[in-house]
């Protein structure tokens, strides 16, 4: 038997990627899968040839299994807090799909439960393991951009009837906001690259005049973020847009600039134009395109070496606070100071 047993809550699109990643890891195997329909959970386990995976239709029944050490929560957003608290109280390490909570109160309750249980966590801001993200972090660490003063990220992903989560994604009490349900990847990328703590947010949001996709909240927003070191940030998000998926990154420093996979730097003498570095881009909303196996490998190593992930719940809370502040600013038409 492998050292760590894994239980997955949810049988949707993203759960399959976790199933594949944990089954492939040399230290883990999936031993439990929860669905409202036990037959569906059993069928998914059989499809992955998971010999030791038990199907459940109740979360608490799976949490009672002592052979399960890690729980993955990939259910609709409004379930993340109660399921996360229950798993932490059961002593399970947590993989939490984003958003971890739809409001500040829920976030604080989840943080308190995790702190009390002393379990390890990783929040699935999976693009931190994307090769473009990793190369940009190397360039920043090497000083090729110098000191950043402006960072802009765009998340444009039209989510309509053609997309798996659309049925509930239009509901405010299930999806939360454009940032919480999707654009938080860009918000987290902004924080990840800037590296300083955010201290103020100002935002605008809207919905198209006809609202053909029937969103109950504003599915488009512009969010400005001021950081403690003076860096300015901007995140543009639209989940109502009519276009192919786009995730843009622009970073401006006093020694150079990065635009997606292009870089210009004063440190490269004689450079006369953009240098393009070939890599895997974050250019698809398809979850199979995302590096879940690398995220899982990282988290398993954190558990086995007893260290915290750089994407743990405490760190992810800072990203979520920007998202909550953006909602407040849009609603109240004022800047919002952080922390909340």
What can be said about this structure in brief?
The chain has 340 residues and is α/β, with parallel strands linked by helices.
Can you offer a commentary on this structure?
It contains eleven helices and 15 strands. The strands form two sheets. It has a nine-stranded mixed β-sheet, covered by helices on one side. A six-stranded parallel β-sheet has the order 3-2-1-4-5-6, with helices on both faces. The longest helix is centred in the C-terminal third of the chain and has 20 residues, at 313-332. It has two domains: 4-119, Rossmann fold, CATH 3.40.50; 127-286 and 318-337, Dihydrodipicolinate Reductase, domain 2 (2-Layer Sandwich). The chain is α/β, with parallel strands linked by helices and 340 residues long.
Task: Give the key terms.
340 residues; alpha/beta; Rossmann fold; Dihydrodipicolinate Reductase, domain 2; 2 domains; 9-stranded mixed beta sheet; 35% helix; 24% strand; globular
Please give the structural blueprint.
Layout: E1 4-9, H1 13-24, E2 28-34, H2 38-47, E3 54-56, H3 59-63, E4 70-73, H4 80-89, E5 93-96, H5 104-117, E6 121-123, H6 131-141, E7 148-156, H7 166-169, H8 172-175, H9 178-194, E8 198-206, E9 220-227, E10 232-238, E11 246-253, E12 256-259, E13 262-265, E14 275-276, H10 292-304, H11 313-332, E15 336-337
Parallel strand pairs: 1-2, 1-4, 2-3, 4-5, 5-6, 7-10
Antiparallel strand pairs: 7-11, 8-9, 8-15, 9-10, 11-12, 12-13, 13-14
Helix pairs in contact: 1-10, 4-5, 5-11, 9-11
